[in-house]
């Protein structure tokens, strides 16, 4: 039932598509029924790529199930190789085709093609998209570096940047920013993978001194294997925010045996000054709820609390594999982490926390709009507007500037509600007008969806409620309704509003 509504991650073969799509010279043959080709739209429409993903579908139909679908798959593999001439071939099955048990890996290997063929065994009914991306990248790297022994390193310190994929949240710009930082302090970037890499580039990964892992959801298993196999240590510090970026630079400088003191002294972000400005201090201590993948949720929580002065009242992730890290981060803010992949649980938690701002995924954008709460997207899954044409990283010092805008503008724009109060009688303004940042479909300020049906507001009390600043109005409404229910008051009048205020102020 959940799949018919919203889900934070697709099946694991979507993760494999993210790897194939972002690389060069890689083709993916997916054993899938007709109708499972919808995933192409994720890349061509949402990410606005100018080419389709390098995926060949077998697209078997119901009538094929009575015949030999294995032969159909082998024919598709042979035709894909002849047509696209890839440097490496991925083969696997979609969640539907997995039930047929045709063994795509064994069938493809039996063709004895003159290129690396990487079978993907992705359990569609136990694991999800990020696992599929992680496992695919790991299998590809192992296949491409096969036969390599310990490689002699260059004199110049060098590293690989691992983890960026297609459909990744700001991955394209994050890589540019991180690469710029590394080169400024004297570290050569050997390979960026998987994004933009060819199989021959993956074979050069062992030549670097160490690895920079930007997104553990995708690159952790590969980085751990490379450390065990080639002695390549890896940096597991996310350069998001000023503090995170400075910690990242210190970590890479230590591995490269470089003194980055002068660079750290000279390089900074405008976020530091902006967050101390009069406009920003207006938002100090405002409650914020954060939900997303583990990497972004933990890093953004640090930025919100330490660099912008927000109060983190909610922190969670749908990445169950990293639940331990998110729980540890939540303890820093004296809250309990929310680990779930059910958006209804997230919505209930947001209602209970009553934040002034929600930082989450595309799904939380919808939830916040229904609740009338400002929201900014800070993590995948995302929609087309979160793939901007402009340079807009989240990582590095420039990323910190972008973060300041992202985390403050949704609430700053809410100040227009105060203008609505001042100019309520003006013909361009009226009492039922909504703030533009909440969207045209935001609910009108009438009856709360959390109020019992027997509890209603009279017109005078409703007008008084609208005078309360927007960022605490929801809490005032809920408190008043709870007070009315507790005292068996069916019609909330002006006196009830004042009585509730006095009651909760004790």
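^ structure tokens above, recovered residues below v
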């Amino acid at each position: 039932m959940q799949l018919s509504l919203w889900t934070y991650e697709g099946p694991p073969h979507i993760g494999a598509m993210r790897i194939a799509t972002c690389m060069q010279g890689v083709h993916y043959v997916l054993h899938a029924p007709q109708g499972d080709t919808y995933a192409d739209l994720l890349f061509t429409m949402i990410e606005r790529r100018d080419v389709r993903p390098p995926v060949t579908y077998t697209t078997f139909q119901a009538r094929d199930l009575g015949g030999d679908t294995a032969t159909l798959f082998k024919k598709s593999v042979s035709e894909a190789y002849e047509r696209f001439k890839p440097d490496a071939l991925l083969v696997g099955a979609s969640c539907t085709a997995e039930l047929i048990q045709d063994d795509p890996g064994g069938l493809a290997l039996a063709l004895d093609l003159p290129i690396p063929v990487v079978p993907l065994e992705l359990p569609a009914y136990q694991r999800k998209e990020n696992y599929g991306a992680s496992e695919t990248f790991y299998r590809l790297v192992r296949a491409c570096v096969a036969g390599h022994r310990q490689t002699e390193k260059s004199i110049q310190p060098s590293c690989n940047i691992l983890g960026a994929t297609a459909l990744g949240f700001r991955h394209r710009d994050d890589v540019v920013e991180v690469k710029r930082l590394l080169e400024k302090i004297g570290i050569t970037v050997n390979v960026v993978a998987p994004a933009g890499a060819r199989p021959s580039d993956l074979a050069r990964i062992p030549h670097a001194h160490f690895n920079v892992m930007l997104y553990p959801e995708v690159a952790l298993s590969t980085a751990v294997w490379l450390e065990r196999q080639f002695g390549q240590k890896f940096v597991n510090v996310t350069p998001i925010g000023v503090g995170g970026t400075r910690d990242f630079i210190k970590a890479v400088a230590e591995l490269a045996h470089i003194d980055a003191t002068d660079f750290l002294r000279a390089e900074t972000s405008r976020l530091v000054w902006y967050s101390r400005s009069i406009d920003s201090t207006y938002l100090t201590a405002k409650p914020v709820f954060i939900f997303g993948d583990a990497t972004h949720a933990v890093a953004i929580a640090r930025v919100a609390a330490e660099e912008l002065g927000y109060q983190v009242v909610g922190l969670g992730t749908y990445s169950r594999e990293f639940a331990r890290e998110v729980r540890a981060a939540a303890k820093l803010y004296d809250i309990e982490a929310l680990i779930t992949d059910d958006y209804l649980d997230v919505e209930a938690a947001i209602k209970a926390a009553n934040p002034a701002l929600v930082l989450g995924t595309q799904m939380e954008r919808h939830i916040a709009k229904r609740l009338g709460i400002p929201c900014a997207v800070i993590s995948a899954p995302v929609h087309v507007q979160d793939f901007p044409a402009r340079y807009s990283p989240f990582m590095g010092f420039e990323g910190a500037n972008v973060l300041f805008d992202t985390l403050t503008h949704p609430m700053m724009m809410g100040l227009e509600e105060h203008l609505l109060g001042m100019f309520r009688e003006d013909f361009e303004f009226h009492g039922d007008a909504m703030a533009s940042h909440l969207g045209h479909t935001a609910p009108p300020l009438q009856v709360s969806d959390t109020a019992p049906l027997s509890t209603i507001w009279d017109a005078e009390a409703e007008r008084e409620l609208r005078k309360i600043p927007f960022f605490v109005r929801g809490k005032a409404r809920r408190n008043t309704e709870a007070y009315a229910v507790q005292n068996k008051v069916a019609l909330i009048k002006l006196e009830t509003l004042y009585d509730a205020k006095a009651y909760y102020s004790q």
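The first strand starts at residue 26 and ends at 31.
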